[in-house]
Amino acid sequence: MDSNELISDLIKIGIPSLVAFAGTISSLLLAWWGNKQNTLITNLQHTHDQQIERNNRTGELAKLCARDLSRLNDKFISFGTIFYAKIDTLNCNDPWPEAEQELITERFQEALISLESQTTIKSYILLLGDNRLTGLHEAYLESISKVTTSYALFGNMEQEEFSNTMEQSRHWHTQLTKQISDIYLLK
Alpha-carbon distance 18 to 23, whole Å? Predict the structure, then answer.
């Protein structure tokens, strides 16, 4: 066999074999890269699905928290309104009517029962994991407790102190509601 035949046979067999080998390697690389891309896309989709579920749960917790907080505030305002009437009446040195005492006692009891929901609201706040919300909730409860404690212990309160405390409770309630809204709207 002469060298020309050897080179001719190498070209006939070697080049197609080299092309086939390069094709096999490139196919393997493309399959590996495609698998890597599929894994990345699957992981991204899983992360996206988890984020959607987390957002849904957060939104539901924020709604429950806002609902219970609104109920508490409504009961507190209802009690505060009649308590203010009592404070104003006593400041004018007028007697507080017995019929009105039943109403204020009833609204006070409703406010206290509503305050029991604070453990639930506190749980919601802890699950939401927002430290600012926790601080606002504590400040709100502190302002409410000043009014309810004064009524429970003394049946009365200084008019200016009452007005200031009610203003504080409105402020803290507004801030608390805004913070819950920001969480709900994912701001």
Answer: 8
- Taking the C-alpha atoms of residue 115 and residue 122, their distance in angstroms, rounded to an integer, is 11
Tell me the two tokens of residue 124.
């919601």
- The burial class, CB within 10 Å (0-12 / 13-18 / 19+), for 45 is exposed
**Global confidence as pTM:** 0.75
| CB-CB contact of 88 with 159 (8 Å) | yes
Hey, what are 93's tokens?
Answer: 């040195």
Cα of 90 vs its chain's centroid, Å: 43
51 vs 42, 127, 148, CA distance in Å? 14, 16, 41
pLDDT tens column, 147-173:
999 999 998 999 999 999 999 999 999
Give Dmax over CA atoms of the chain in angstroms.
133
